[in-house]
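Why do we care about 3D structure at all? Because function follows from shape, and shape follows, mostly, from sequence. That is the central idea of this module. The next example makes it concrete: a single protein chain, its amino acid sequence, and then its structure expressed as tokens.
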Amino acid sequence: MIRRILRNGLVAAIAAVAVFPVTAVAATTTPAPHARHHVVTTPAVHHHVARHTWGRVTTHHSPRLNVRSGPGTGYRVVGTRPTGRMLPIVCKTYGSNVFGNHRWYKLPHHEGYVSTHYVHNRSAVRWC
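And the structure:
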């Protein structure tokens, strides 16, 4: 029973480090006013997350890229973007398969989704 409790606690600790890696690193220690042990604290860390990144439309056999209402070819076309145009990208998600690629980029302001197969991004894109 103790072995199972320790194993589950270790699994929970590893999961917490994977989800919140910044909180797992102790930055400073401050002594407790009425205890002999030290309390480990971490400073507040604020990460700047860009609202969106940019990608260039790179369709090979078509002059325009379809923008769809959802992440898949089964969704209706709500617009198009010309080849070579820069697109703002909010995040990426999984959708239907386009030439072996299941990832789709979400465009800002509810404009729609485009297949990542046809867009070359400038930097890392976060998951939706």
